[in-house]
Amino acid sequence: MSKQLATKFGEILFKNPVVPASGTFGFGREYEAYYDLEKLGGLCSKGLTLEPKPGNSGIRLWETPAGLMNSIGLENPGIDAFIEKEWPHLKELDTVTVVNVGGKDEESYLQAIEKLNAIEVKLIELNISCPNVKAGGMAYGMKAKTAGDITKKVVKLSNHPVMVKLSPNGDSVADIAKACEESGALGISLINTVQGMAIDYKKKAVVFDNLYAGLSGPAVKPIALRMTHQVCQAVKIPVMGMGGISTWEDALEFIMAGATCIQVGTMNFVNPLAPLDIIDGLQAYCEKEGLANIAEVRGIF
Amino acid sequence: MAVVLSNEFVSRGICRMTVAFKGDVLPGQFFMLRAWDKDPLLSRPISVHDYEDGKLTFLYQVVGKGTEMLSRLTPQSDVTLQGPLGNGFPRITGDLCVVGGGIGIAPLYYLVKNYRKHNPDGKCRVYLGFRDVAYGVEDFEQAADEVNLDIGGIITDQLQVASGEVVVTCGPEVMMKSVAKVVPAENRVYVSLEAHMACGIGACLGCTCATKYGNRKVCQDGPVFLRDEVFYV
């Protein structure tokens, strides 16, 4: 393990701060053909819901300048199938598997969380920020009060530490993060995708069946960096920053803004080896700058 | 990274690019191609048109910024290839009938060539439909027993399928659905689907299609499916 990159997120040890983001990494299997997942600091599972979800109809992807809009709609096999088919494989990996959980209402969040109590998850990422589902999803993450309420109930029920994944689309993200912190969250991750819209003028039609969709990729990075900074200023719990990170330099900027770990999302689609390139780049940076640990440059603004 | 050997327009808006590549490549598989940094962001899924002696050929239509940039690559320049991806067509025994429309003919040439190699006694018939200008037809004429051409009409109007022929189709969805409808139920029909893709390897779930077995990924589980799997009949 690299001494320079080893990172504690709360009490959880990550061998490095680089974590592929939920929804861009499946359950890891697709990327195992490209590299050893144990090189990663951790990985976030595809967003799971209590029941299997088929996802949204119609066009699900739309490219924009330096960005990608998606309207996948949390297609996933459900918690039970995950525990049965994916967890036996993931739990053997020497990396931190973060299990991402979504829901359509309070009951479905809590039932999913209860089922996860049966397995040895190191960290849950509570998704209250998906812009692509009609019920639940982002609705809980728009205001500090609702975000704090659901976090409190989930934290109380869960045997595992809970990190809350926040939306850039709601009220002041710092206020929402503070409410999650006060409700017992171990950490915060942000940002989920930025809600956007696409229109096909030739067809005089909206592109997505769900009308709006989530924008990610390099196009959103400055927004994500600003929000990561605001949240890091507002809370004492650790933060995983994400949003358009495509190079080690981007990752370093998020760490300098205060992020403890960083997540790599859309870039996994562009270059399957992106997380490894970022790890290597951060390692080389630490060596060049003579840092004992990357933490020396964390939160310097 | 691969080196471009040749890259030329063969018709208006249609390019043929050959690159140096070593590996096992099956008909119906595709590669993710890029030759730029982050704009456009995504790589482009392009099907294999031919593969022989370390030369991999793509026949592609220039439809947007990505394919336009690909079309401007000159010999000896680099292109990033990821693949081969997808399952491709199954190995076909018995007689083959291929129906291609527009740029959908691209993966069918390698299929026909490969079929001929493995089935020297089999019969291979081809139907090709184009909106205004035909391209790539001579290649099919060399590899197949019979080539039927339609320009500006509806290719399925002349489609006659013999008993026992396996039918493979690739082209606009409306054409493939029409093929699926007119071919008798006793004939096996494979359709090669196209979809927006971000990753090409099964992670993004952007190319999901509904099948009678539930959702499947065009990139990883396809792009080739049986017609009844994807509700084309």
TrEMBL record, chain A:
Subcellular location: Cytoplasm
Cofactor(s) required for function per UniProt: FMN
Record text on cofactor binding: Binds 1 FMN per subunit.
UniProt: FMN binding residues: 22, 46-47, 100, 127, 165, 191, 217, 243-244, 265-266
Catalytic residues identified in the record: 130
UniProt cross-references to Pfam families, sorted A to Z: DHO_dh
Enzyme Commission number(s) of this protein: 1.3.-.-
Top-rank EC class of the record's enzyme: oxidoreductase
Key words, A-Z: Cytoplasm, Flavoprotein, FMN, Oxidoreductase, Pyrimidine biosynthesis
The keyword Nucleotidyltransferase is assigned to this record: no
Keyword Magnesium among record annotations: no
Molecular function GO labels: dihydroorotate dehydrogenase (NAD+) activity
Domain Dihydroorotate dehydrogenase catalytic: 5-284
Catalytic reaction(s) noted: (S)-dihydroorotate + A = orotate + AH2; (S)-dihydroorotate + NAD(+) = orotate + NADH + H(+)
Amino acids binding substrate: 46, 70-74, 127, 192-193
Protein family: Belongs to the dihydroorotate dehydrogenase family. Type 1 subfamily.
Matching HAMAP family: DHO_dh_type1
Job description of the protein: Catalyzes the conversion of dihydroorotate to orotate with NAD(+) as electron acceptor.
Protein name (record): Dihydroorotate dehydrogenase
Native organism: Acetobacterium fimetarium
Classification of source organism: Bacteria, Bacillati, Bacillota, Clostridia, Eubacteriales
Gene name of this polypeptide: pyrD
From TrEMBL, chain B:
Annotated PROSITE patterns: FAD_FR
Name of the protein described by the UniProt record: Dihydroorotate dehydrogenase electron transfer subunit
Cofactor requirements of the protein: [2Fe-2S] cluster
PANTHER family named in the record: DIHYDROOROTATE DEHYDROGENASE B (NAD(+)), ELECTRON TRANSFER SUBUNIT, DIHYDROOROTATE DEHYDROGENASE B (NAD(+)), ELECTRON TRANSFER SUBUNIT-RELATED
Family the UniProt entry places it in: Belongs to the PyrK family.
Stored NCBIfam families: PRK00054.1-3
Native organism: Acetobacterium fimetarium
Domain FAD-binding FR-type: 1-91
Gene3D superfamilies reported for this sequence: Dihydroorotate dehydrogenase, electron transfer subunit (2.10.240.10), Nucleotide-binding domain of ferredoxin-NADP reductase (FNR) module (3.40.50.80), Translation factors (2.40.30.10)
This protein's UniProt keywords: 2Fe-2S, Electron transport, FAD, Flavoprotein, Iron, Iron-sulfur, Metal-binding, Transport
